[in-house]
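Appendix B, record 7
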Amino acid sequence: MKTLGKVLLWLVVGIVVIATVAWLALRRPDIPYPTLEAKYGSAADHYVDLPGGLHVRYRDEGNPNGPTLVMVHGYSASLADWEPWVKLLGDRYRIVSLDLPGQGLTRSAADYSAWQGANGYVQVVDGVTDHVGAKHFVLIGNSMGGMVSWTYALAHPEKLDGLVLVDAAGWGEKPKGALIFKLLMNPTAAAVIKDLDNRAMVKQGLQAAFQDPKLVDDTLVDRYVAFSRAPAHRDILIHLQQGRVEATKDKLATIKVPTLVMHGKLDQLISVHDGERFAQAIPNATLIEYDDVGHVPMEQIPEKSAADLNQWLEAKVYPAAAAKPAA
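Structure tokens (predicted):
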């Protein structure tokens, strides 16, 4: 029995040693911001310093004389998600997009206030829109950015001309279909994996979001992985779940601005039923559902989704603009 006990002890020690060596081998260092900016920056990029040590990247593009659209990306994404819509709608609208703290090229401290989540992001959106002089605008958010957008609508209704929720989060359901999101919702698992090579899981998560494998190429995966390794980003991302806000019918019933809800029927991360719940809870909301589309309609079907958005804007929000030719 003593011999068997020793064998088992050494077996456990061996497993621990192998696991430790593997964990150390898979660790990946931060990528400095100058390196990321050199590869992923653009001449269209601008930066603004906001309270809390934030250095926020944003873009102010399109028709400077048109109505303003402000676009907020989803979890672990960046303003690059909106580039297809900027190209398709920029002749008619002024389009402001930004990188939220912990994502894209926005710089922030790892302890960015412990973490403020959606409510903190509302302050960031407000800071950027104030900086660019956007007094009234339509706020558009995808996924987590959708949560930020409807939360903003509750906090600053006087600033919004309209609200657009694209596969928006907020009803409290756990993400489906992607291992990386399930692990990140577990604090212990998140702490273990946050510094490891996560490329395979990021790719699987993007495939679950896009539904079309052809759209998830190496360039896209590389960008998501690189941004996640910006200094402080991994620490912020694993704490974002602590800052979630939950949607309720009573809260959403107070939103009075014209609202468009867009949702892919094949969304594996946020069920299409959540989109239907937003449309039912927000007074007079318009719902558009897309067959054979996943979590990011603005990237998967940019022409169709941009056309639907423009049609809704001209009908419900800016009818006067519809009578004017595009710039």
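Remarks on this record: Residues 27 and 196 are 4 Å apart (CA to CA). The longest helix spans residues 2-26.
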